[in-house]
Amino acid sequence: MKISNKWLKIILPPLVIIGALLLSAILVALKPEQERKEPAPVHPKIEAHSVVGSNEPIVLNSEGTVRPRQQTRLTSRVSGHIEAVSPDFYEGGSFQSGDILLRLDPLPYKGALAEAEARLALAEATLAQEREASEQARLDWESIGSGGSPSPLVLRKPQLMKAEAELKAAKVALEVAQVNLDYTEIRAPYDGRVDAKFVDVGQAITGQATILGEIHSSNALEVPVPLSLEDFSFIGNPEASEIEPSKAILSIQINGIEHQWNGFIERTSASVNSQSRMITAIIRAQAPFTSENGMKLRPGMFVKVEIQGKELGKVLEIPRNALHPGDIVYRLTEDKRLESRKVEILYTNAESAVISGGIEEGDQICLTPLLFFVEGMHVQLAGDNLETEGSGQ
Q: Coiled-coil region(s) at which residues (predicted)?
């Protein structure tokens, strides 16, 4: 009896396992087969852009800081004490060409002018006396009848030459004294504004060693902007008088309002920057300096600049994001497949590319970034119903 129980414990577990396996196999064999369905093809959705032609000139984009064409550190040509300051000669003040900005005490220079006038009068009298003496010496020589020609010493020529030289020096000294007196009035060299004032009434200044203030012209503003050599090739030579300078638009956005001013390329830098490899174009702003929205163009403003480049004839313009490495675009065929086309690029900026070959006007190109690209892959336009036909794969 003990032996039978022992064998049952050994044989029974394998029999149970074998029976379970056989039962599972029978159930699987008797299970009805389910109908297998082919997965529907997945066509990536894309946004397409229709290529259009353009005869518009290329627009070059740059930016720069507005600056006055003339900016001056104001000094005096003479020394002295400041006697008066114009009410316009303060930071932010406006003035016209020729306005008196400061006046120095003129008394010392009036004295110098009087001395110069007296010296001139004395020199004129001395010259008149020497001329009379020279003429008398000639008459005396002739009355003696010594014969021959009198020497220069006899005719007092040296004294006469000295008197003439002293008269010339006295005239120059008078001019200098008059100019120095005029310089006691420091006048504005042009129409402009005051950036800073460093002196005031009662202060003593030492000629050009003292900086009186800083001013700038208000009737001429310009914007230096960097251009790559590629961009520079699309503008005319501004130094050539027979070529109309390239037009430009200056703009700035403040509180959601865009302000614009007109300008043109007046000149370019004489050399290329050795570090940036860029050339600087100087944009001359055109009056009026107040935009249509009432904003005045001021030095120090950082503005965007759009420069009208050359006209290239009939070209194609496409969005910049349609370009892929190697100057490739994905063209959409009539049966909604993508094919790669290499294009000839003339110009690119951050938003668009101008091309002249590889695709034609009216072609549609893909704008949607793709995870992968396979030549001839089938796609679906955004907004279309998903196609599930097997033939579309």
A: 113-180
Q: Would you say how long the chain is, in residues?
A: 393
In this predicted structure, the answer to whether residue 242 has a pLDDT above a threshold of 60 is: no
Class of domain 220-308: mainly beta
Side-chain-side CA neighbours of residue 68 (13 Å): 16
Q: How far apart are CA 345 and CA 226, in angstroms?
A: 22
Which architecture, in CATH terms, is 48-56+313-392?
Beta Barrel (2.40)
Q: How far apart are the first and last CA of the chain?
A: 74
- Give the span between the Cα atoms of 216 and 351, in whole angstroms: 37
- Among 79, 82, 81, 112, which Cα is nearest to 100's? 82
Higher-confidence residue of 7 and 205: namely 205
Nearest to 306 by CA among 279, 288, 289, 281: 281
Which is it for the CA torsion 225, 228, 234, 236, positive or negative?
Answer: positive
CB atoms under 10 Å from CB of 319, counted, come to 14
Residue ranges of the chain that CATH labels 2.40.420: 48-56+313-392
SS (H, E, C) 118-173: HHHHHHHHHHHHHHHHHHHHHHHHHHHCCCCCCCCCCCCHHHHHHHHHHHHHHHHH
